[in-house]
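Changelog note: in this version the structure field was regenerated for every chain. One regenerated record is shown below for reference.
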Amino acid sequence: MKEKYEKFHIGINVFVVRNKKLLLGKRKNVYGAGTWGLPGGHLEYGEGMKEAAARELGEETGLKADEFKFAGLINDVREDEHYLQIGFLAKDTGDKEPILNEPERCYEWKWFDLDNLPQDIFPGHIREIQVFKKGDYFSDK
């Protein structure tokens, strides 16, 4: 029996979809800088997952949602890190456009057609987006 548990992280990511377009931000000064990623971040100790989704969405984009619907769980094992990526679909975000609340961490927010996403997507979100587009809810390593 293993005496010490290895550390892993939990990422909470938000899918904002309008008119078949997905909101992505171009990452800056963080891991994966220069790639496009979902709004999101780490689950904080003691925090609810939907609470984290709402917090991250607001902190990064200024958007609010009436509801967050579970969108998928990805076991994301990389060479250097292990993440559980948990996605939520933001429902009813209204027609307000996202704002750049964290310009030190993101260059811009942009809407992409779900069938024509950029090639340079943040590695931790690639499978999560693929699973979301298929309508699946789970992907293991």
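Spot check on this record: The chain has a mean pLDDT of 95. The domain at 9-139 is CATH 3.90.79.10 (Nucleoside Triphosphate Pyrophosphohydrolase).
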